[in-house]
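Support reply, case 0932

Customer input (verbatim):
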Amino acid sequence: MNVAVADDESAKPRRGRRRGGDTDARAQIVAAATKEFLDRGYDAASIRAIARRAGVDPALVHHYFDDKADLFAEAVRTPIRPDQLVREVLRGPRDDIGVNLVTAILTVLENEKARARVISLLRTALSHDFAATMLRQFIMREVLHRIAEELGVDDGELRATAVASQIVGLMMVRYGVRVEPLASASIEEVAGRIGPVIQWHLTGYPLPLASAPLDSGATAGE
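Our regenerated output:
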C-alpha cells in the first residue's frame, strides 16, 4: 500500500492562487469568514484568522476581497438568497405577498444554523454601525426594494422600510428574545397574523393626515 507523505512545504497554506476551482476557494473563504464573524464578532475577526480557518494564506483572501469590510459584505448575504426569496414571495396573487414573505423567511429560519446566523448578525448590527449598514442594505436593497419595485406602488421606499420594521421585529421576538406563544407558534399561524400587516404596508392606503392639530382645550362632546 502506497502512503503519500506530505513534506513540510506542501503542508503549509499556499500563497496566491489556490489550485483547483477559484469558485470553490472563494466559497471556502466566505464560509470561514461567516463562522469567524459569528464566533468572534466583526471587530475581533481578522483576515489572518479567517485565512487560518479556511486553510489558506491571507494573500489568497486579499486576492478575492479588498478588505475585511468587503468580505463581511459578502458573508452577510447568507443564508437568505435574495433572488430566491423575492421570486418565492412574488409567486402567486398579489394579495398573498404579505403571507408569502413571512412564510418564506420563517421557513428559512427554521433551520437551526441559518437561525443562529441571522440572529447573530442582527445582534452585531445593533452595536456596530458597519454591520447595521450592511444588513440594512441587504434587507432593503436586495429584498424589499425589489418587491416594492415589482408592485409599482407610490412611496415604495417608505412602504419597504415599514415592512422591514415588522420583519426584523418578528425575527428578534420569535427567535432572539423567544417570547411565547409567538416563539412556538406554527409558521402558518404567524404568517396568517403578521402577513396581512405586511400586505397593508405594501399595498394598503395610509390613513389621511389630520388637516389641523387637535385643540388641546377641547373636551369630549363639544
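We compared this against your earlier run and they match. Two observations from our side: The two ends are 100 Å apart (CA to CA). The mean pLDDT is 80. Please reopen the case if you see a mismatch on your end.
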